[in-house]
């Protein structure tokens, strides 16, 4: 302990944590993915995963995650862009972030009321002369609520990268005769693409693994990979199949992270989207 | 700087409206004497009274707070020591490997953390309940603390430590008198984030909590699945106020102390 080059004792709890809660859980998930219900070794779970039911579920989960991410970018980009032009931009940004600190369940619960048969959404529809619609428990409500929840996580990285752009570059582009649109397309957008990538990363993977909103808002109409894992673990008690889906979710996660490239520094801290 | 055009202002106003309307909608109906979230009848405090008269609910709130405080304290201690250890790792490859292992739990979806911890606890034979929830919260908070503390450690000049060594400080003195005071803002940031992560967590807790133990979010989930009760509205209004207080308090604390530790979610 007096010798500085010796392995510091205070690292022990941290290394134990890595071993027990980072390496062991992943190893256990992989191990369990090869077990059937009776605990025997099997490849059946993997065969099942490629069967039509699970394959279709995976595809639809990806489709919804794509839709959610795409709409989030569409809404968040202009928001972030104009926020950088406001006077007290850090304060406005904080105001965008605050809703992301409110528990996800409460936000989902609010939408149970808003989209309900007598809720304000239906009152608005009736005001325009249409009959009350079943909004809750549809895929529309699922996508809407998911986008609502993810918007702050998308605005934040895009805002950060837009905010970092040197305004002299934009002035230069305008001086050289580029129109506002050309400046955006050729200068601003390429310079801020990393923010979009971080945002996509922060939204797409959680969107694949959502299960709270599917249960509360989509009424089991939408099955994401996350819902399927929860179902297998806590309802069907088929841990083998659940682990297999989890293995694939981890694989998809790695692929997406590789595709969206090295994160901007601190990108992972955008918050914990569920 | 150009002023915002009118459409831009309208757009931003619309986004803010969409972001905040559901939250205020929830809070508004917490004062409704009719039992639903549509058609406001009369102003009442009865749902708040219901929250404070429900002993079971209050015990759950207490549980949640205890788990949050304990897990934040313990994970901060382990995380800070871990971060110091990482900084002193001479081997670059080793350091990068440890850093990547550190980020695994940050990027993993909650369902996977929850499911894998469930397997782990069952294999080891830990009874699901308070212990498993607390340990899980500690486990997923540690990497955040490390991430918040590391930049502070990196900006600390190593000559400070050399000076302390030359002046005869023991390793313990260096840790408690030099390093820890220097990285204090990072430690606070890490503790605060660990606290909010624990309070906010639903998915992981949902997997590793047994039948006997519940945190607030698990309880809200089962209440919400049963349908609308305005008790949840009253509860969420209270949670909103507490959250807002925490975030703003932390924000201004950071501004005042001028520390550049980042405001967690807002400025990583």
TrEMBL record, chain A:
<feature type="transmembrane region" description="Helical">
    <location>
        <begin position="12"/>
        <end position="34"/>
    </location>
</feature>
<keyword id="KW-0472">Membrane</keyword>
<keyword id="KW-0813">Transport</keyword>
<dbReference type="Pfam" id="PF00528">
    <property type="entry name" value="BPD_transp_1"/>
</dbReference>
<dbReference type="GO" id="GO:0055085">
    <property type="term" value="P:transmembrane transport"/>
</dbReference>
<feature type="transmembrane region" description="Helical">
    <location>
        <begin position="62"/>
        <end position="84"/>
    </location>
</feature>
<feature type="transmembrane region" description="Helical">
    <location>
        <begin position="238"/>
        <end position="259"/>
    </location>
</feature>
<comment type="similarity">
    <text>Belongs to the binding-protein-dependent transport system permease family. CysTW subfamily.</text>
</comment>
<feature type="transmembrane region" description="Helical">
    <location>
        <begin position="135"/>
        <end position="159"/>
    </location>
</feature>
<feature type="domain" description="ABC transmembrane type-1">
    <location>
        <begin position="58"/>
        <end position="260"/>
    </location>
</feature>
<keyword id="KW-1003">Cell membrane</keyword>
<protein>
    <submittedName>
        <fullName>Spermidine/putrescine transport system permease protein</fullName>
    </submittedName>
</protein>
<feature type="transmembrane region" description="Helical">
    <location>
        <begin position="91"/>
        <end position="115"/>
    </location>
</feature>
<keyword id="KW-0812">Transmembrane</keyword>
<keyword id="KW-1133">Transmembrane helix</keyword>
<dbReference type="InterPro" id="IPR035906">
    <property type="entry name" value="MetI-like_sf"/>
</dbReference>
<dbReference type="GO" id="GO:0005886">
    <property type="term" value="C:plasma membrane"/>
</dbReference>
<dbReference type="InterPro" id="IPR000515">
    <property type="entry name" value="MetI-like"/>
</dbReference>
TrEMBL record, chain B:
<dbReference type="GO" id="GO:0055085">
    <property type="term" value="P:transmembrane transport"/>
</dbReference>
<dbReference type="GO" id="GO:0005886">
    <property type="term" value="C:plasma membrane"/>
</dbReference>
<feature type="transmembrane region" description="Helical">
    <location>
        <begin position="174"/>
        <end position="196"/>
    </location>
</feature>
<feature type="transmembrane region" description="Helical">
    <location>
        <begin position="57"/>
        <end position="89"/>
    </location>
</feature>
<keyword id="KW-0813">Transport</keyword>
<dbReference type="Pfam" id="PF00528">
    <property type="entry name" value="BPD_transp_1"/>
</dbReference>
<dbReference type="InterPro" id="IPR035906">
    <property type="entry name" value="MetI-like_sf"/>
</dbReference>
<feature type="transmembrane region" description="Helical">
    <location>
        <begin position="202"/>
        <end position="222"/>
    </location>
</feature>
<feature type="transmembrane region" description="Helical">
    <location>
        <begin position="101"/>
        <end position="124"/>
    </location>
</feature>
<protein>
    <submittedName>
        <fullName>Spermidine/putrescine transport system permease protein</fullName>
    </submittedName>
</protein>
<keyword id="KW-0472">Membrane</keyword>
<keyword id="KW-1133">Transmembrane helix</keyword>
<dbReference type="InterPro" id="IPR051789">
    <property type="entry name" value="Bact_Polyamine_Transport"/>
</dbReference>
<keyword id="KW-0812">Transmembrane</keyword>
<comment type="similarity">
    <text>Belongs to the binding-protein-dependent transport system permease family. CysTW subfamily.</text>
</comment>
<keyword id="KW-1003">Cell membrane</keyword>
<feature type="domain" description="ABC transmembrane type-1">
    <location>
        <begin position="61"/>
        <end position="250"/>
    </location>
</feature>
<dbReference type="InterPro" id="IPR000515">
    <property type="entry name" value="MetI-like"/>
</dbReference>
<feature type="transmembrane region" description="Helical">
    <location>
        <begin position="12"/>
        <end position="31"/>
    </location>
</feature>
<feature type="transmembrane region" description="Helical">
    <location>
        <begin position="234"/>
        <end position="253"/>
    </location>
</feature>
<feature type="transmembrane region" description="Helical">
    <location>
        <begin position="130"/>
        <end position="153"/>
    </location>
</feature>
